[in-house]
Design brief:
Layout: H1 2-35, H2 40-63, H3 72-101, H4 110-137
Helix pairs in contact: 1-2, 1-4, 2-3, 3-4
Length: 145
């Protein structure tokens, strides 16, 4: 029961950190997509790199409380790998939503469904990231949570 409590608390910390990462990453994505007019893939990739840097620093320190004795290079490589897999999985689903929504173009503007698909993909990205970082990136952390 105590372990379950700490696991739930860890997920809560992950969500709080995720809100900050989302503000940074999703704002970046929308700026690159809507203001700079980059395409879907470029906007989401650049925004997720920016959010990923923020995420790595905050998750390592606050969510998973990795002590400095953990090799940072190894953790960083795992973090990048998990982010890449989560990114392509989540944003491919988002892109698929755009493709499917194009058939409803007469009912909804492309800008609306493209932005909604980015939002949905961002949510999926968060879930995939949590699972990957919990079981792969920070699985061998030094502090018991």
């Amino acid at each position: 029961m105590v372990k379950s409590f700490f696991q739930k608390f860890m997920f809560a910390r992950f969500l709080v950190v995720g809100v900050m990462n989302t503000i940074v990453g999703l704002t970046s994505i929308y700026i690159f997509f809507n203001v700079v007019s980059l395409n879907y893939w470029a906007s989401t990739a650049i925004g997720n790199v920016i959010g990923g840097i923020c995420s790595y620093i905050l998750n390592k320190k606050y969510t998973f409380q990795v002590k400095s004795s953990t090799p940072s290079f190894s953790t960083a490589i795992k973090f990048i790998g998990v982010n890449i897999v989560a990114y392509f999985t989540a944003y491919y689903i988002g892109y698929w939503i755009i493709t499917m929504a194009e058939s409803f173009e007469q009912y909804m503007s492309p800008l609306l469904y493209e932005n909604l698909s980015i939002l949905i993909a961002s949510g999926l990205f968060t879930i995939f990231n949590y699972v990957g970082h919990k079981y792969i990136t920070f699985a061998n952390r030094s502090t018991p949570l």
